[in-house]
Amino acid sequence: xTKKLITKEMWVEEILEKYPTAQEFLSKKxxxxxxxxxxxxxxLKELMQDKDFSxxxxxxxxxxLNKFIQVSH
Length: 73
Hints:
By secondary structure, this protein is mainly α.
């Protein structure tokens, strides 16, 4: 069973601070590109909603992100 590391209520800055490899995942999903200078404030859910992700997509991507983090750490 995958341990839940990241929730949709977490602030993006907190996620990237705790799990720097999350940047790669979030960039590939076209959610955030900090390396490009994109400013990010707020929760992961807010950011994804601003980019028109549905609630179902948000839940699915967060599950995938948690799996990615488990493998990369």
